[in-house]
Amino acid sequence: MTTTIPNSATATAHSNLTGVRVAITHDKEQTQDQADLFAALGAEIYYYPCIEIIPFDDKDLENALREASEGKYDWLVLNDADTAWVVGDAMRAVGIDPNQIPRRLKVATIGCMTEIYTAEFIGLESAFAPEVYTPQFVAEELRLKPGDRVLLPQSSTTRAGLAKCLHGTGAEVTAVNAYRTMIGKGGDPVPVMLWEGKIDVLTFTFPTAVRYFVKRLEYEGGAKAMLDDVCIACIGPLTAAAAREYGFQVSLTPQQHTIAGLVEAVNDYFK
Question: Rounded CA gap, 175 and 158, in Å?
Answer without folding.
Answer: 10
